[in-house]
């Protein structure tokens, strides 16, 4: 038993519930995207909260996203693709038609491909299990990353991972890297083959059901065939612009509580489990995030 997991902690959820206040990190509202979809058939609102990726990762793209929000560019676009066990994608439905495409605001950055990988200055909570896509994996400042190994990566080079709920930037073929005007969220088994091939710019921290439960598209790779099938996006705002937005915190991945949580994810010994796995995939260790109301 790890020192800080508590004498009665038998499951990962037990560890999280027992984590002291000092082990939680507040997410700045200025780092949250608040995306409101059109209401569902029962007129119930559908809100999705996305935490943007922190430095040093993907900053060219997150900078573009902030400019797009400031210009209110996302307001009125739509969810255009829902591919089962893969992604939900949103953007301008006319984006491929130069005559009808929604004009992008000025000042967006063309981000080079080498920024899919960044240099990190510190180690994080590591995963001991073998990884198929990186020399090693760890958690740095609350985010799962791959480290070293493979073409174009060595030493302290690291990159964010396509785990469930990750938000990435849609793009055309290389050398295009996308602007951030077209985004997607992973709704299936982690497509880690996309790591270092597409920019990961954030993760869904609330409202995932409003994306993952959408009807699947019947067109090629899950695109909706008709305008009527699409789900309109009413607005996207930074969290600091939304009155009454609850606060959110994540469990510090540098904390003893997270170390205990990681250990429990890899070695389940509670009543339900017969054989502890003895290891865990990095994407099967979702960083705990909680809503905090006054």
Topology, pairings included?
Layout: H1 12-18, E1 24-26, E2 32-37, E3 46-52, H2 59-70, E4 78-83, E5 87-91, E6 118-119, E7 125-126, E8 136-140, E9 143-147, E10 157-160, E11 166-169, E12 183-186, E13 200-206, H3 209-212, E14 231-238, E15 247-251, H4 256-266, E16 289-292
Antiparallel strand pairs: 1-15, 2-3, 2-14, 3-13, 4-5, 4-14, 5-12, 6-10, 7-8, 8-9, 9-10, 11-12, 11-13, 15-16
Helix pairs in contact: 1-4
Notable features of this structure?
single chain, alpha+beta, eight-stranded antiparallel β-barrel, five-stranded antiparallel beta sheet, 4 helices, 12% helix, 26% strand
Number of alpha- plus pi-helical segments:
4
| Secondary-structure element series | HEEEHEEEEEEEEEEHEEHE
Structural class: alpha+beta
Gross morphology is globular
Count of β-strands: 16
The largest pleated sheet is described as:
8 strands, antiparallel, barrel
First CA to last CA: what distance? 33 Å
| Secondary structure: helix percent | 10-25%
How much of the polypeptide forms β-strand, as a percent range?
25-35%
Query: Radius of gyration, rounded?
Result: 20 Å
**Which regions have little confidence, pLDDT < 50, spanning 5+ residues?**
150-154
Mean pLDDT, to the nearest integer, reads: 93
**Arrangement of strands in the largest sheet:** 2-3-13-11-12-5-4-14
Give me a quick take on this structure.
With 294 residues, the chain is an alpha+beta fold. It has helices at 12-18, 59-70, 209-212, 256-266; strands at residues 24-26, 32-37, 46-52, 78-83, 87-91, 118-119, 125-126, 136-140, 143-147, 157-160, 166-169, 183-186, 200-206, 231-238, 247-251, 289-292.
